[in-house]
Amino acid sequence: MPAGASESLGVANPVGGAAGTQPGARAWFVLAALCFVYVLNFLDRQLLSILAKPIREELHLSHGQIGLISGLYFALFYCLISIPVAWFADRSNRVRVLSFACALWSAATVACGFAATYPQLAIARMTVGIGEAGGVPPSYAIISDYFRPGTRGTALGLYNLGPPLGNALGVAFGASIAAAYSWRDAFLVLGAVGVVTALIVWLTVREPVRGGLDAPAAGQGPQSMAPFMATCRMFFANPVLRLVALATGANQFITYATANFATLFLMEEKGMTMEEVALWYSLLILVSMGGGIFLSGRLVDRLASRDKRAYALIPAVGLILAVPFFVGFVLAPGWRMAMLLAVIPMALNYFYLSPAVALVQEEVRPNERVMAGALLLLVMNLIGLGLGPTYLGAASDWFRAAHPENSLQLAFLTLVPFYGLAVLLFFMLARAIRRAAQEAGDL
């Protein structure tokens, strides 16, 4: 970026630029605004799975088709478009990129409400994926330039409450609107809210200085732009960054597969009604998923300063403890017992998100943060979002021939080995973190 470009883009140092300055009121306002955008991002993303039952019945879809449209088809566009969007955001006004992306995915959500056929719905969902590709990576970098090192784990933990809040509000409002009117109205109303929010963010959020709160040696100047290919090579050549992407991908394989079919599973095989889903399942998501994401952010801020391996060990231990409760959730005879047993794994399954994001943002230079965040999302979402729901839907269709009454239950049980794979990768990440610290002379 040439000298003076930051002024032309309306860039401002939000908290004075001193590394020791505590976040000010504007920083907290920006965090709240970006978190709300993330809420809408996840709400619109998960709305299809929340309303899967009425959509499936009206459009005559199989579990496999639901898995493809909410998984692979969405993820291909979401992940691949995120890379050029991140490259552009690193060289332009990140707030404006975020605002435009929010408007695009929200308009595409409205289009989902008008879909009359499976191909039309698929195209609308792909467009949602294109828009959402510009949502999270710029936000990671903006937050990292509003909050100094040592507070970013908490800030990103709060930001990462977007998924549970989006899921909970999507279930509560989406299911309520669908129960009272139709599933189409839910897409129309919630998409319109996103368009308005995009305009508000454009007008009220200021672009911060890149690296303004980092030590000077960390960034080699806040206006220097990192080359695209060099950043990609750096990311995948770094064992810590490579392993955090693979480990979180394996973890997201479980969480996205579960999230995209949990509502359908609870309604079709556990006897829940749409009204009960709107109340009880939304509360479960809000309390458990939100609590897990926030608690892990606080834990990593507290423990990583003593031992950086906490970035990997916190999610690994969480997954180990989650397994028996997850199996109990799947095998429970009714929805009430299933919901009770789901409280623990719903929290522990999400111990990976805040530590992973904070680790990546700390490992790279300020002018690489958007791109590094996009590369993290590329790997973990291609694996988790792309393959998790796709696999679970296909597995349910495969089991349906012999077990038509509980095909989803059997498909869910096949996720247990993926817990073991994710734990193994997190332990490998912990070893890589220790080795990198030894090489840097920090141990």
TrEMBL record:
UniProt name for this protein: MFS transporter
Residues passing through the membrane, by range: 64-89, 95-116, 158-181, 187-205, 243-266, 278-300, 312-332, 338-360, 372-392, 412-430
One MF term in the entry's GO annotations: transmembrane transporter activity
Statement: the UniProt record of this protein carries the keyword Transport: yes
Entry's Gene Ontology cellular component terms: membrane
Predominant location: membrane
Cellular compartment(s): Membrane
InterPro entries attached to this UniProt entry: MFS, MFS_dom, MFS_spinster-like, MFS_trans_sf
Keyword Membrane in record: yes
Domain Major facilitator superfamily (MFS) profile, first and last residues per copy: 30-434
Membrane topology category: Multi-pass membrane protein
Alphabetical keyword list: Membrane, Transmembrane, Transmembrane helix, Transport
Recorded superkingdom: Bacteria
Any Pfam family matching the protein: MFS_1
